[in-house]
Amino acid sequence: MTNQMAGKEMGASDGMINGIHMETLLGTVNAIREEPDLGQCKFRARNTWVGGSQNCTTVTGFYGAGQEIAHKQPFELRADEPPILAGSDEYANPVEHLLNALAGCVTTSMVAHAAVRGINIEELESSLEGDIDLRGFLGLSDDVPKGFTHIRVGFRVKSDVDDVEKLKQLCNYSPVLNTLAQGARVDVQVSAK
Asked: How would you label 89-99 residue by residue, b for 16+ Cβ within 10 Å and e otherwise?
């Protein structure tokens, strides 16, 4: 974030670009540049099984900028499964939530980085599709991966045509995209209650 955003920030206005409040964003960039430890964050979520294939995740805050920061309200993200997986289809399933997280993160990354570079976006939409072979998830084959094997993301943008390739490159700043593409260490512990 620091080196690439630094290039245009002096020329960016303090107003709004792409709906991003530039003074706030550039203030954050500059603060982290001056004190890199402020960039260390911990995002958290708590999940409770509701019953059957339903569960509910609650997000109340995170650690960032050297402090605990509470959201202005708790957020609840509910998950279920479709009937073919013994669910009641009341909510999106977890892999659909993953696609949502990817879409939201890439969109936000593109819009914010475009704003810092003075690239105006009038409209932006995406569609996502991921491939999963249920034989892995259902334990029917050890040779089949248990998760997505391929995710396709398509964006349609209304912006200056000369900026389209630049916007594509800005997708690479997405933390969720990078986590999926590069992988992250995940430690799982299960203990008695």
From this structure: eebbeebbebb
The span from the CA of 142 to the CA of 77, in Å, is: 31
Is the sign of the CA dihedral 176, 182, 185, 186 positive or negative? positive
Measure the CA dihedral 93/192/61/104, to 10°: -20
Q: Which residue has the tokens 């603060």?
A: 31
- Look at the block and give the residue holding tokens 């659909």: 96
pTM of the full structure = 0.89
34 and 87 share a domain?
no
Instruction: Note whether 74 and 136 are same-domain residues.
Output: no
**How many whole angstroms separate alpha carbon 97 and alpha carbon 80?**
10
Kindly report, residue by residue over 22-71, the tens digit of the pLDDT.
Answer: 999 999 999 999 999 999 999 999 999 999 999 999 999 999 999 999 99
Phi, then psi, of 23 in degrees rounded to 5? -60, -40
